[in-house]
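Fig. S4 source data, part A: sequence.
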Amino acid sequence: MDGKDTQDNKGAQADMEAYFSKSSERVRYAFGRAEEQYVTPFLSFYMEAFSQRPVITTFVTVFTALSFWPIVTFIGWVIGGFAVILGIGVCVALALYAVLFVLAAGTLLAILVLLIVASVFITAGVLIAFATGYLTRRFYKLVRAQGREGVGAWVRETVELVTPANRSSETSKDEGSDDSAVVVN
């Protein structure tokens, strides 16, 4: 496969060389033709005119050279104006894009904050509803089973559910060597 790739690369390189040779030949031909048809006759005419009438030829040469200055200036102003207008357009487009991005990001952020607040309230409402339902069910069950004493049992059970469990002194007591003289680091 590497041999085929090398042959393909050599073939492509040969094609590029042939294309470049043809292109350079065409350019040489076009410039040679322009030189023969326009430049050489103009230079010979100019040299002959300068040798016959040097003052007038110098005046015409300076006048012609100075006549190109307004043309070049106009072209420069047109290109510069186009570049300025294009630059202003790009800057305005980038500014609008930035403003739209900030507006979209702000809107998204506001929606996300609103959803977080709503989800907190909805979650709290659901948890309160489940807790109320559970406590109501336990209340009915205890009152039905124990009568009036069920109300007290329900209050004690609810307090135990709501407050953290108190540890007994036995489980919280360290079984270490508090009373001994040996210190372990």
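Fig. S4 source data, part B ends here. The two ends are 73 Å apart (CA to CA).
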